[in-house]
Structures are given as structure tokens and as C-alpha cells.
Fold this protein.
Amino acid sequence: MPTLTMLNATLDVDAEGFLQKPEQWNEEIAAEIARANGIPALTEGHWKVIRFMRNRFLQAGSAPSVRTLGKESGVDTKELYRLFPNGPAKLAAKIGGIPKPRGCI
Amino acid sequence: MKRILILGGGTAGTVMANRLARVYRGDIAARRIAITVVDHDDQHVYQPGLLFVPFGIYQPEEIVRPRSGQLAEGVTYVSAAIDRVNVDRDAVLLVDGRALPYDVLIIATGVRIAPEETEGLTGEGWRSKIFDFYTLEGAAALHRAFEAFTGGRVVINPVDMPIKCPVAPLEFAFLADWYFTQRGLRDRVTLTYVTPLDAAFTKPMAAKTLGHLLEDKGIELVTEFATGRVDGALGKLVSWDDREVDFDLLVTIPLHSGEDFVSRSEGLGDDLRFVITDPRTLQAQRRANIFALGDATNLPASKAGSVAHFQAEVLTENIRQFLNGESLEPGFDGHSNCFVETGFKKALLIDFNYEVEPLPGKFPLPVVGPMALLKESRLNHAGKMFFRWIYWNVLLPGHDIPGIRPQMTMRGKQPAATDAEAAAA
């Protein structure tokens, strides 16, 4: 498994830089991943989505879709795309330190 | 007497009832155990067959049998709609006002499609140029539309995840390529696969070995498309970030949801009405005497018949342990096993679990197989077509399938490439 060194921590990641072990994540790492992906500063809106995403993943074992984020995270869908351009489900998962949303094959 | 109440008489509920009926044959005869199955209609659909109906390979009536006829002797069948579960009173309330008390409740009510959840999907064009194939009516209507189709843009769009039989939309695209080729229309039809995920094949080994399939078949791909609304009059899919895909005929796989009674039963399910379930023991989080299996759970396993079958074997043992006052076995590993049609009488076979992605190799035995994993073959297609017989005669009656255990095995599988290799491919 490839690793990534960030803020003096060694992180297990996949080929696209998604953390494979959510427990290696912390909020400083989130901010660093966000900066590397074109989001200079995380706002309260970003954090709402990221926390919802992580909680759902840790509870159910899979990441919520854009629709669920829009309905349940407290941030509506239009705003989601403004906060996380080019795909909120994927980018919020990356910043939230959970694996990429995937199908079964 | 201990009452085991099973909600749902589909694949999961039927296999579960029949396995328990065998384990408790003597107890049922002696009235120490009673097994009851509840469902709202008496139509058991062989759901893998729905994929073939639009292409005229199966007729709708060939894939339906009565639910009650699939249940073993000694199992009581109740035809009724479910209002809710009263967890504190250990009873299920039916819409007709009756209450069914239970000692053990097993929820196997599956999922339904919820096209009404997407703006415009059931509006103008629904079932005239917008079709689902996850219902008998939708698949039959799509068959009629395909027969009359002379050319244009066919778009296949899973609206959201999770869906049941997650590979079915891809299989549909492959079969559509075959179907229009057979009819001499392929050059007048564009096929576009529009997915909310970032690729058609998202697992590293599958992406590496199968990534070429869409391109080989001339199927266009649109990724990370979260469908916001559908305009049937103009023939447009519109995403939340305002991208558009035009269609003449839309094959939609609508949002999936659990059954409504789940949301009326406090604390049982999540926002999509999937029952919150322990991934290993299959016990519901809500109460110790409630269990769930099949498509009705919120587990990150595939929503597929094979999963329900493997879960039923694990859960039968856990129900027995529970009734004996023993602790539960964390026996379910997310095992799933599916044939994937790729068109022109070929298919793939995939076998995987919570941790292990679909890998190449041989199945069920190393080297000799005879099935090839993650690779197209005619034998896999023959297996897929023969499976209908296995379903009614081996799987539903609750027999084990020889050589296949509920837990996945690495025997015959070739280990995954590293992520770096997969990325380089």
C-alpha cells in the first residue's frame, strides 16, 4: 500500500491519495489535503459535510452519496457543489480521510 | 412456543424460512416453534431474470411464481401489508389492523425503486421514453419500446448508490450493444452509460482487467454525474452541477429505498429506510431479537441474491444460538458472488467480500475451475442462464450449493496487484 507523509505522519493511501485507514486522520491533515486539492481554507460549511461524511462511513461502512449529503448533512446540494467543486462525494471523502466511494466491481 | 416472524417472502425471506423449517422440523411438528412469512403480494419474481426481459430473452411470466409455493411445509404464509414494528411490544402491526407477535423478528423486505424521489423522472415520458427494468412492468414496457425503436440516443443511468445488483446497469449496456447489433441497428444507436461514480469499473483489479470493455463496445461513458432532475419532454438528464445528457430513450435505475414501514418503526432504519444491522452477526442495532438480511440492510455488502443466500446460512445458525441463549457468531464476511453478462453469449464471474475486491482466477476450485473469475467466457454465460434452475430448485429451498461456502475463500484467486501497479495500468 502506498504511503503519504503529511505533517510528520505516515498515512496509508490509495493510488489517488484517499486515506485507507480513517483512524490516521485528524483535522490538521484534513486542512492539508484540502489545500492540496484547491480548497485554501475549510469553512464551517465544509466541516459540517466532512463530519457527517466521516460519521456515516464509520457507522455504516460506506460513504453517503451526493443526494444523502444534500438531504442530511445540513448543507444543500447547490451549496455542496460550491464548497466542493467537481464532485462533493469524492472530494469530501478525500478530505474527510475515508476511502473513495466505489461500486462492487 | 417460540414464534419466528419473517417479513418479506423474496429471496432472503424464503431461503431463511426454508432453512429454519429444516432445522426446526421436529419442533414445528411438536408446536414448539412457529415460522410465519408476511408479504403484501403473492408474486415471487426471479429478479436476475429482469435483465433479460427488455431484450426478449425471457418473457415476464417465465420469471414469476407464487411466493407461498416456494415455502416449505410447516411455514405459514400471511398476505398483508406491514404498517410498522412495535419494538417495545415485540409485535408487527399490519395495515389491516392485525398484530403479529414474535419472539424473533427477521426483516427481509428488500428494497424498492423510488423514481418519485428524482424530480421529473415519473413526469412526461415515464414508461414511453423513460423506463426502469427493475420491475416486471418496467422491463416489459421497455421490451415493447425496444421492439419499436429504430435508432437514436439510448442512455443508461443509475441515479444513485446503493442499488440492487450493482452490476446490472453495466450488463444492460453490454446486452443493449449485442441486441442492437443483432437487429442490424447498432450504427443508428448511441449507447451512453452515465454513472455517479468516477468510472464504470471502480475496483482496481476490475478497472485494470475490464476497463477496455466499454470502449471496445463503443459505449460512451459519463462519470461523476449526480442526477438532479430529468426533463422527459426535452429528453434531458440534468446533474446537480448543471451538466446535461440528451436522450431519446432513457433506461433509469432509480434511487433505491427500503420499505416505508421501516421509517414508521422508530430507530430501526437509516434515512433511506435500510435497517441498521451488524455487518457480521446480522442482528439489528435496535433490539437483540430483531435480525435483518438481504437487500433490506444498510450493510456495505452488495444487494444481491447470492449475498442473501450466504447470509441466510450464517443467520440460521445465529437464530438457533439466540433461541438457545448462546452468543452470536460474527460469521458473515460480506461474501458476494455474481455472474456478469457481457453480451454475445459471454459473461464474467466475480467473487468478493467486505475486504477482498473481485480478483482474477478460477472458481470454485483452483486451476481446474471450471469457472473463470473476472474474465469473459462462454461457460460463465451458460452458468448464468442455468442459474435460474438452481434458484428455484436449490437456492430457494435452502439447500447448500456444492463447493460454495458462505464465507469467501482465497483458493483459486490471484492476489491483487498493488495500487501503484493498478494505477500504472
User: Anything to note?
Assistant: Chain A has a mean pLDDT of 91. Chain A has one domain: 3-95.
